[in-house]
Design brief:
Elements (H helix, E strand, L loop, with lengths): L1 H27 L41 E7 L4 H5 L2 H9 L1 E7 L5 H10 L18 H7 L4 E5 L11 E2 L2 E2 L9 H4 L2 H4 L2 E2 L4 H6 L6 E5 L11 H15 L3 H4 L2 E7 L10 E7 L7 E8 H12 L7 H4 L9
Parallel strand pairs: 1-7, 1-8, 2-10, 3-6, 3-7
Antiparallel strand pairs: 2-9, 4-5, 8-9
Helix pairs in contact: 4-11
């Protein structure tokens, strides 16, 4: 009798163990989904979380292959990871999409990081003064594949303006203007505009395959701080995130150029949102602007620029 009871207990335990992979997802799927979207303009009034935003419960991870067809990258300024992550709308953006907790910029000051993002190297740029560079950037790869690119830079005066500043617009935050090929080509220069035409591009279905959105130096937090930038993002992009015409096949990326020099690693806040992103996913893998560039190159089948993008680890584990 004792032997039979022991054998029965063992079988029960084994069956319970084998059922765990089935039971756990079913249990977790019953957890209520959090409503992360804040009303437009509500960011400044909300109470910031006490710690880095995480998904409710264990961090979820998605697949390895992104399926977006358009990408827009919004770049903010000079903020530590922790300060950005504690802002209400940056936090909600990450909660709706994916948060990359170990994402580093390449250099100081600002300009080199913008150049790194589009060309795979900061190319020795250690100043914020206008520079003129040869060589290729992602626009060349996109055009070779018949794809389109554009920069929406707030306050940009147009006409391939190469001055260092105009009002709250600064050239150092528009990396394509650092490349002589773009400067000398009216067709490519025409890809750089202010943001006044964004709504028309959305309404007419003419959003480019790749775009940068460059807020002016108040809205990006450079002259104002993270709370101001957070409230601007809520007011400007909060409604667009609910607009199907804008979000169809879109990958929306929020990142920063550099931290506030508080860490040796130059760690910055970066989050991704869109229909191809697993909501609430969190990745602790190490990434850089080169990783973001490589991810876009791979998704569009562009090849690479033969610089740091060629060896960079693409972003994985956050995709549906």
């Amino acid at each position: 009798m004792l032997k039979k009871k022991s054998l029965g207990a063992a079988k029960t335990a084994a069956a319970l163990f084998l059922s765990l992979p089935v039971l756990l997802p079913a249990l977790s799927s019953r957890a209520p989904a959090a409503d992360w979207i804040l009303p437009a303009g509500a960011g400044a009034a909300a109470t910031p979380p006490a710690s880095v935003p995480k998904a409710a419960g264990p961090a979820r991870t998605g697949g390895n292959a992104p399926s977006f067809k358009k990408v827009m990258i919004i770049i903010f300024e000079n903020t530590s990871y922790q300060e950005a992550a504690s802002q209400p709308f940056f936090s909600s953006f990450a909660g709706q999409g994916a948060l990359l907790t170990d994402f580093d910029a390449e250099t100081h000051p600002s300009q080199g990081n913008y150049i790194a993002l589009v060309s795979g190297d900061y190319q020795g740029v250690t100043t914020d003064k206008p520079v003129n560079l040869g060589g290729r950037q992602i626009g060349d790869l996109l055009e070779a594949r018949g794809l389109t690119w554009k920069v929406y830079a707030q306050g940009y005066p147009g006409g391939c303006f190469l001055g260092a500043r105009s009002g709250n617009y600064v050239r150092k935050h528009v990396p394509f203007l650092s490349f002589t090929e773009v400067q000398s080509n009216p067709g490519e220069c025409a890809n750089i505009t202010d943001d006044s035409g964004l709504k028309d591009d959305i309404a007419s279905g003419r959003l480019p395959d790749f775009s940068l959105f460059i807020p002016d130096i108040k809205n990006d937090g450079h002259d104002t701080g993270a709370a101001y930038a957070d409230n601007w993002l809520s007011s400007y992009f909060g409604p667009l995130m609910k607009d199907p015409a804008f979000m169809k096949d879109m990958l929306l990326v929020v990142t920063f150029d550099e931290d506030d020099k508080s860490t040796a690693a130059n760690r910055i806040f970066t989050a991704l949102y869109g229909p191809s992103v697993a909501q609430g996913s969190v990745s602790d893998a190490h990434y850089t602007h080169y990783s973001l560039l490589r991810t876009i190159e791979d998704a569009y089948g562009l090849g690479d620029l033969g610089r740091n993008d060629a060896s960079a680890q693409p972003i994985t584990g956050i995709w549906k």
